[in-house]
Amino acid sequence: MAGSVSNGLAELGKRGLPEEAAAAAAEPLPEELEPEVAEGIREIVMGRNVHASCFAVKEPDADDEVTGEREATMAGVLARYRRCLIERTKHHLGYPYNLDFDYGALAQLQHFSINNLGDPFIESNYGVHSRQFEVGVLDWFARLWDLEKDEYWGYITNCGTEGNLHGILVGREVFPDGVLYASRESHYSVFKAARMYRMDCVKVETLVSGEIDCTDFGRKLFENKDKPAIINVNIGTTVKGAVDDLDLVIETLEKTGFQNRFYIHCDGALFGLMMPFVKLAPKVSFKKPIGSVSVSGHKFVGCPMPCGVQITRLKHINALASNVEYLASRDATIMGSRNGHAPIFLWYTLNRKGYRGFQKEVQKCLRNAHYLKDRLRNAGISAMLNELSSTVVFERPKDEEFVRRWQLACEGNISHVVVMPSVTINKLDSFLNELVEKRVTWYQEGICQSPCIAGDVGQHNCLCTMHKV
Amino acid sequence: MAGSVSNGLAELGKRGLPEEAAAAAAEPLPEELEPEVAEGIREIVMGRNVHASCFAVKEPDADDEVTGEREATMAGVLARYRRCLIERTKHHLGYPYNLDFDYGALAQLQHFSINNLGDPFIESNYGVHSRQFEVGVLDWFARLWDLEKDEYWGYITNCGTEGNLHGILVGREVFPDGVLYASRESHYSVFKAARMYRMDCVKVETLVSGEIDCTDFGRKLFENKDKPAIINVNIGTTVKGAVDDLDLVIETLEKTGFQNRFYIHCDGALFGLMMPFVKLAPKVSFKKPIGSVSVSGHKFVGCPMPCGVQITRLKHINALASNVEYLASRDATIMGSRNGHAPIFLWYTLNRKGYRGFQKEVQKCLRNAHYLKDRLRNAGISAMLNELSSTVVFERPKDEEFVRRWQLACEGNISHVVVMPSVTINKLDSFLNELVEKRVTWYQEGICQSPCIAGDVGQHNCLCTMHKV
């Protein structure tokens, strides 16, 4: 979900179907198929319902079945939409999604309404489910994070947000009067959870890298030392890809006197699956006193739709479950009905790639991220790359059209590219060449200077006129 | 989500892949593909992590890429799984899912990672989305429930539970100290919401039909008259398909002095889409003082994965949005990343069927539900069918194997069949014949009698020995 923080803002005044897509289309869209677009410049106003673009649903005519015209029209819309997706997929760099997958072997399953109702470990009477695959995937992740089969509980979620909502809820149920701590660079879903669950929430400062500042954390713990602590630890922040120092977080808790009075949820949306394959990286492991880990399935693994994996300690779920007596079964998920296709996609990729396959891909991503950072710096562009991370942060390109074309996620003066397996050197070269070329026109000597981003990435990473050595 | 209340219990001691499926398979499963099944009778124990059946993820061998053996093994698992799904789909009656759909035309889109990040009406920089389809679908539903384009807000959810979580959260934000009222036959997600959101929750009694008892509701409102009321109104309860009397609920609120101090969320998971097409049915409409309506997309419409539609008043979302300043954009959904395929499935079906198509299907379902009820009664089996409903409630079959085979949802002594467009007369006949035949062996004269279910369905619907006329 990286970059969601800048949702919309960069899209001011733009249309749903990008112009490139229209160009890619062999023939122009017939008028009745054009998305309904507001005239002139589109305004985003909080709380106004802007129908930027929309394929309206139209009532079939009485003779449609005979003429087949409706089917033909719909096929036309879909074919053009597909061309647009191809183009948009080709020029995508900003979000941490692996767009490179081939699930052709699973197309046969799209004819079924596959629903994993309720708990993965308790079967419902609905027979069209995929629990066999779900439990297989969960076992794999539990092993990855060092939790025994009979000591874990988990499920396949709809996305990283659901994982955070679940982890923090479990924490609250374990410590009903606990205070939630999270660094200010945590994903917005963490703060949303605090509000939904009516929890006291303390925002902790961050270092320039984006990691949680444990000095500030210790201070704030001390101020609230009468109440248990529930902590969201980021295994890869949204914007800078920073990994909070889990060991230092635990040490800070213990030093401040919080022995056994804390619950740690690890938001591993992206790096939760990459870190285990990075040499020398600190381990996310249930051998440490953590309560839950969540990771997204559509990010590093790649999946047609968002999904995620949630793993927690079984004993916590028992505490939760004992409170839901109105149910004859255990209801410990956030959602009731769950997408049964997602576990099969994950199962398929895990089986095909295995540990070795993921390791290779992680190494490639890190290599390519270094390549990107080095080339940016060599071109005189401020850039930062955290250790353990494939998220390259750099100055925000001046032209919003360029930002949109490459689907970069931006915040303030910075922007980022997340190097996923689908981001090849070729793609990076084409991006870099375009950026360098454009920059010449944006920053002409004496007219306009590239922005200083030392505040965001540190002086040593900033190449503005003031900080350039 | 009908019947989820009985999740698991009826499955005691059973395996993941039903025996029929094994029989359907041409060749037996090679041993290494057999789901890992615990020996003997499976025990469901709350809080024990039962690995009933599982397709384990296995690490590829080093030479797998050369031999292609792994691909072949996986293809085998999938082919057998598909046969199992066909069989399970054929014998399904208990859950309100329309299993009859053909989305072949959309198979081409499975290659794309389609994600509708955040708000449907504010574009993010991620270009591989389907907002054009989402807004088209939302417009259609807003019109169905009489809300103008510039007065509604909504989004495509992951399931009915997300709709209820959203509607009740909006209610709580509008009335932070409001008390949540819901009939005891409301879906379990309503009570889950109360707990998650730390709201006071009052359970209201129901009539035999399953509708909310407005006399009890009035009494309970009066007891809490100092606090605003947030009410969950059921447009089709989970078990009995009962439709709460929305007009009487509003009248009760006003009589008790709650003018303008209430928020009504309508849980229309199943019937929200059927009711508009039932002649003489009371209308769910935003012309009445309601705040939100949710409906499932995988139920009456039919969809490969769970999804739903949430429509609320824009003014409420503005109240919500003003509180989320940490976001540069509006974050008013429960989930952050959202399945971009679901809106396209819905758009496709709405376009193909239209109002007329749905009306025809609703009429067919109601006709078939009456057929089923009549045939049950003629066979001496206690049964109830609420007006406006296609959910036929009847005595719980004595044999759990039979319950499982037809995937019936059960609660206590009752069971139900939800007649969906995929439930044909042929399917019902085959079910009825089997039931009647089996019953002869279950209830032999003098040995064992069929249960009295008058408490659940009323004396006039009960055909036990005591109540039979």
Automatic annotation (TrEMBL), chains A, B:
Family, similarity comment: Belongs to the group II decarboxylase family.
Keywords tagged on the record: Decarboxylase, Lyase, Pyridoxal phosphate
GO molecular function, one term: pyridoxal phosphate binding
Catalysed transformations (reactions): L-serine + H(+) = ethanolamine + CO2
Listed Pfam families: Pyridoxal_deC
N6-(pyridoxal phosphate)lysine found at: K299
Protein name (record): Serine decarboxylase
One annotated GO biological process: carboxylic acid metabolic process
Cofactor(s) the protein requires to work: pyridoxal 5'-phosphate
